[in-house]
Amino acid sequence: MISEIRNVKELDEAIDTCTKEFEDKISGAHGKRAVLVCGGTGCLSNDSDAILQEFKRLVEEKGLANSITVNHVGCFGFCSQGPFVKIYPEDTLYCKVKVKDVIDIVEEDLVGGNIVERLLYVDPVTHERVQRQDDINFYKRQKRISLHGCSLVNPDFLEEALGYDGFKALKKVLLTMKPQEVIDEVLASGLRGRGGAGFPTGRKWQFAANQQSDTKYIVCNGDEGDPGAFMDRSILEGNPFEVIEGMMIAGYAFGAHEGYFYVRAEYPVAVERLKTAIKDMEKVGLLGDHILGTDFSFRAYIREGAGAFVCGEETALLNSIEGKRGMPRPRPPFPAIKGLWGKPTCVNNVETLAQVPYIIRVGAKEYAKVGTEGSKGTKVFALGGKVNNVGLVEVPMGTTLRELIFDIGGGIPGGKKFKAIQTGGPSGGCLTEEDLDTPIDYDTLVAKGSMMGSGGAIVMDEDNCMVDVARFYMDFICSESCGKCTPCRIGTKRLYEMLSKIVEGKGTKETLKEMKSLAAVIHQGSLCALGQTAANPILSTMEKFPEEYLAHVERKECPAHVCKRLIRIVINPELCKKCSLCARNCPVSAITGVPGKEPYHIDQNKCIKCGACLASCRFKAIHKE
Amino acid sequence: MPIRQDAKEKILAICESHKGEPSPLMVVLEEIQREFGYIPFDVQEMVANKLNVSVSDVYGVVTFYNFFSLNPKGKYVIGVCLGTACYVKNSQAVLDKFEEVLGIKSGETSEDGLFTIEALRCIGACALAPAVSINGKVYPMVAPSKVPSIIDEYRKLEEVA
Amino acid sequence: MALIEIKIEGRNYQVDDSLTVLEAARSCGYRIPTLCYWNHGHNSLASCRVCLVEIKNPRGSRLFASCVYPVKEVPASKGFEILISSPMAVEARKTAVELLLSNHSKDCQTCAKNGKCELLDVANLTGAETGKFIGEKTPTTYDELAPGLIRDTSKCILCGRCIERCKEATGIGILGFENRGFKTIVAPIANRSFSKVPCLQCGQCINVCPTGALSEKREIDRVDEAFKEGKYVVCQVAPAVRAAISEEFGHKIGEENGEGKMVAALHRLGFKKVFDVNFGADVTIMEESHELLERISKHTGPLPQITSCSPGWVNYLEYFYPELIPHLSTCKSPHEMQGALTKSYFAEKEGLDPKDIYVVSIMPCTAKKFEKERKENAALGVPDVDAVLTTRELALLIKRSGILYDELKEETFDPLMGESSGAGAIFGVTGGVMEAALRTAYHTLTGKEYAKVDFTEVRGFEGIKEAEIDIEGSKVKVAVASGAKNAKPLLEEIKAGKSPYAFIEIMGCPGGCLNGGGQPFVKPSLLPKEDKDILDTYLSKRANILYSIDERKSVRQSHNNPEIKALYESYLEKPGSEKAEHLLHTSYIATRERYPH
Distance between CA A267 and CA A262 in Å, rounded? Predict the structure, then answer.
């Protein structure tokens, strides 16, 4: 246990010791084995803590505690295959582990030295089992910068962070770089904000640096609210020290000595891990006064959100920290000029700060080799929806959508056809078949009618109705609108009502026209980015799927058979085996027939389109139309 | 309903413990919410007085954020995730089923005070979609047909108690 | 003041670089439509989005809210151009108003703000169409339980002006935003009625509300009823009303003392007598200065003594500092005193039964609607005052009756409680009561008349003035505060036992009664003839009318008013007499619950 890091010498010693220890652990020095159990929220929800405890218990019981370390680590990212257990030094990755499998792993692998084949990942194409994580397609294309250390280091231990490049960047900055040099380096790296807007980070810091003030703040935006996005959560849960280090470097660069983490209340594990990390850093002297014996002092605090999506908007976030309703402020003045409690403040996303130590460690030039001309570095995406491999993916900017969805994502399950991928959450738009070869980059995505957003990427297939998707997002926006400005408060409600009319078959071409012009005003007239981008899903889906909208308004049909009022569920009398199972499952008794004699028939007037009959028919005699 | 003396003391202690911090209203309210499960009017008045903010401001904050509740929640808070990944896997039908079986709408608490239904924003268990979280315990891949048995699970707990 | 060159609609102008685009455009002759904007952007939330303008630069165009956007950001030198009537801006403004209308009551004819509604005005300016965006409406609340105010959320546009105004004027902050998104409303806590929260009923919120969401409880129908029933209906008019009534008939603020025309109109309206509450003010002075001297010399009550003629202020004390009630003068407010005297002194003189007399007070105030209903203000077993009409209601009454205000020949108040001194007149201004009281107190002590009181700002306390009066060698310190918020430091001082004052005047409304919750609205966008900084100057303009009335009066001290002398000689005997105590003094409630269940 490190007890003091109050000067460079102590830091160097700590890094040396911890690095050696960590390398030994991973390389199996002295015949030791290491068991890492995924402790990300996704796997925790699937009993991974019980798995961890079971390992500890069995290792203890078998007297192996001296040669086998067991601890949890952060998110592996490949959530659809979790819970994960990784064994070092063999680098074996076990997937979909259950508590009852632990005994097998302990006896066969840890004791017996034999891999438990049945728990290895199976490649869906070759059907072969893959032992090593890096050999799995999902991981091959990834480059972990923001996720540095996640699924490797135990996030509860400062020692493991130190053992895996932790605080090398902070040392370089505090001892060899002037604040302006740090800003210049980050500017040169081309780092752009990962929260969604993609504003050049170095420029933001420069604005704040230019302000004369004794008090300045660095705020880390951990209010990741896009549904389907969990990148920031995984980073904070997997390696909180990396983000704290990035925050401290930012503070040094523009003159802030206090940092606030604003984390969603829905992320209790992340909050706990951050709290522990900050406390441990304070104990040894890495936070507080005279860090590493320099004049630089820094303190970090945590504030939690309370369930308001709009607080991801930077000025609403600041208001929330100030104990107010999370309503955004008009800008200018921008936060860098007048922010938290009126002082110059930079609000940076978790992922952005997580990229900073790496940039300092390898240098801007090296960093800038990865990515495209306009967007440097890597981006973490949360791939979800109708895709085989659901999880977190960190890829270099410039990776194409095709690679993301099909190579890494493993394509669409059930042999269905790809329809669209929604990026940027409720602020973004969708990209279709024709966009699949687009290299992912801030500007290309905007040019194609969407945006990078925070990194949520939801794949949709032929069974998704894009009008329904637009309505889903609009419903979300309506409930999350703060209510301050007219276009967003009332306008989004009206847009939602128009979309509801359309999916219920009451819309006309006139409705489409009204939606488009209202959407334009909401986009131009809203006070903050939530309102300004609120209409993007509608505008984007109208642009890319005009036929689908027309089907809804002109022919009152839903081609994807989703919109309840526009579909009919029909029994094909020729295929019907008259077993009556569907009728028995119907909650409204809308199906009639005679068992064994007369084919069954659905009364369209009574049918509520719940689909229970369809799900129960064993003869594929029922279909939607 | 008057506040119990021990609750009053706890609330005052919470306010006191954050006195030195800048703008502690959110922090104080979050602690009270966690401790008692809800923040009724009288408590808001206490907090307003202690922290020197207007009562209307406290109420405005409490009603703005989803996390704060004016009324006590049920013993078991059923959170159905309606994040995109869960939505496209039909979590709306799961929510509807809970509403149907319990006879209350999302945001409401059952008469016997046992269950509250809430529609949640993404809880980050996207690979387990549709996900339902009850008092922190996450149920993966919940189908509407599983809903009655989940509720029975908790009713049985109550019988035993 | 530095200048910056900007380009508006193709032409270049030099403007002060510290302004917003809205103000800069105004100085160049453009009035961009606004709605939630108020008072130099004092609390511009920039939320209504009606003031949007298009700002074009070489890289493209965007819309910005001109009420907050600094003109410094858009210099012509960097290629910026401000377009006020570009299609994009016009469409956006129109849509913003249409969206507001789609969530708004359609009840315009019977709305209290008919003719003075800023939303309708801006709907007209932007060309908003009717019937667009029909859809769900936010659930509404209609609160008319409080005697003075009505809240109707179906007309609220969430501009937030009232929230800030209450905080600014009273320091309490009764109103606030509640809920989120489409469900957001402006309300007292938990959407309670004004009658169930410590609202002072001062009506400051009504004065800033752009629509009919906040208005006063009208009592015109009560007065109509009284006439119908054949009662002996008299009216009495407060000092501050005459300084502003002409504004309701198109006159510029501060232009005309409406006293003469107002009295003429009231006579035509059928009031049997038209009395001047300035008389009641003189009575108040007699009683109050007597009370002060008693406290000072005989310790009949604690010092400092605080005035009690402002019911909004009395509400504040009762709600928040009930332990200081003994400091409040026991004097009723002038109109209550006068009502009591009408139903006693006047009734006896005229041979009338007090139960047949219906007293209508015409006030600049909404809190007095509450005050008249206090049980303590019913000296003869019937309320001293039966109905209170605001200045605005009086104007309505005059217009309803077809009376053409400007063609009236001036008339004077009826005698026997129509004669007033200059001291009575200045009651309507903050500092007025103090000054009036001092004139009489000084005379009582020294037998001499006092010259003008010289007030100075109290350093470190905004809105508080103090003065030191030399009364034959003894120094007496007095203080004046208006706006309950400004009273707080003085009250805390008293509580701590550290108050250096003998006498304090507190008015509930900042600036005094001239700025009361019942006065004509001062809405710059609806008053194109006024200077654009009228919100900074209207109070002093109205005050000048009262000061000039004071100066032109031959009798400038209450104790020299011949009708006052007659009243005491023939009826009350002396200030503080038993009869005076019974008729003219009141008591207060120390147990008011702030948030009754």
Answer: 11
What's the fold here for domain A378-461?
Ubiquitin-like (UB roll) (3.10.20)
pLDDT tens, chain C, 597 aa long: 799 999 999 999 999 999 999 999 999 999 999 999 998 877 678 999 999 999 998 889 999 999 999 999 999 999 999 999 999 999 999 999 999 999 999 999 999 999 999 999 999 999 999 889 999 999 999 999 999 999 999 999 999 999 999 999 999 999 999 999 999 999 999 999 999 999 999 999 999 999 999 999 999 999 999 999 999 999 999 989 999 999 999 999 999 999 999 999 999 999 999 999 988 888 999 999 899 989 988 999 999 999 999 999 999 999 999 999 999 999 999 999 999 999 999 999 899 999 999 999 999 999 999 999 999 999 889 999 999 999 999 999 999 999 999 999 999 999 866 666 666 677 777 777 888 888 788 888 788 887 776 666 665 566 888 888 887 777 889 999 988 999 999 999 999 999 999 999 999 999 889 999 999 999 999 998 999 889 999 999 998 898 888 777 666 777 778 888 888 988 998 898 999 999 999 999 999 999 998
**Is residue A521 less than 8 Å (CB to CB) from chain C?**
yes
> Do C329 and C283 fall within a single domain?
yes
Q: Note the pLDDT of residue B73.
A: 87
Between β-strands B115-120 and B132-134, what pairing exists: parallel, antiparallel or unpaired? unpaired
**Which ipTM value was assigned to this complex?**
0.89
Instruction: Tell me which fold the domain A158-367 belongs to.
Output: Rossmann fold (3.40.50)
Query: Which pLDDT belongs to residue C419?
Result: 66
CB contact under 8 Å between C69 and A525, yes or no, is: no
Strand, coil or helix: A304: strand
> Chain C partners of A517 at a C-beta cutoff of 8 Å?
91, 95
Which chains have at least 3 CB atom pairs separated by less than 8 Å from chain A?
B, C
- Check residue A149 and report its DSSP letter: T
Q: How many helices (H) and strands (E) does chain B have?
A: 7, 4
pTM, to two decimals: 0.92
User: Is there a contact between B57 and C176 if contact means CB atoms under 8 Å apart?
Assistant: yes
User: In this structure, are residues C484 and C508 in contact, taking their beta carbons and an 8 Å threshold?
Assistant: yes
Tell whether C203 and C125 lie within a shared domain. Answer: yes
The residue annotated as part of the active site, out of C168, C376, C411, C493, is C376
Question: What angle in degrees, to the nearest 10, is found between the helix axes of A536-544 and A509-525?
Answer: 140
Could you confirm whether domain A568-624 is CATH 3.90.110.10?
Answer: no
Q: Could A483 and C135 be called an inter-chain contact, meaning their C-beta atoms sit closer than 8 Å?
A: no
Architecture of domain A466-553: Up-down Bundle (1.20)
Catalytic residue among C309, C331, C365, C509: C309
Confirm whether C530 is domain-assigned. Answer: yes
- pLDDT tens digits, B14-45: 999 998 899 999 999 999 998 998 999 999 99
Check C189 against B56: CB less than 8 A apart: yes
Number of folded domains in chain C? 3
Contact C35, C124 (CB under 8 A): no
With contact defined as 3+ CB pairs under 8 Å, the chains touching C are A, B
CA proximity to C176, closest of C150, C214, C167, A486:
C167
**C-alpha to C-alpha distance for C157 and A271, rounded to whole angstroms:** 38
Alpha helices in C236-308 (DSSP H): 239-242, 259-268, 277-298
Domain boundary among C99, C129, C156: C99
Q: Which of C421, C513, C553, C558 is labelled catalytic?
A: C513
Q: Is B56 on the interface with A (CB under 8 A)?
A: no
CATH for C187: 3.30.70.20
> How far apart are the CA of A501 and the nearest CA of chain C, in angstroms?
11
Q: Kindly list the domain boundaries of chain A, sorted by start residue.
A: 32-138, 158-367, 378-461, 466-553, 568-624
Beta bridge partners of A191: none
Q: Which residue in A has a C-alpha nearest to residue B58's C-alpha?
A: A324
Residue in B23, B93, B123 nearest the CB of A321: B23
Strand spans (E) along C381-499: 387-390, 456-457, 464-471, 474-482
Residue in B30, B57, B138 closest to A265 by CB: B30
Distance from C-alpha of A30 to C-alpha of C457, rounded to nearest angstrom = 83
The CATH architecture one would assign to domain A32-138 is 3-Layer(aba) Sandwich (3.40)
Tell if the CB–CB gap between C188 and B41 is shorter than 8 Å. no
Domain boundary pick from C190, C216, C242: C216
C88-97 confidence digits (pLDDT tens) = 999 999 999 9
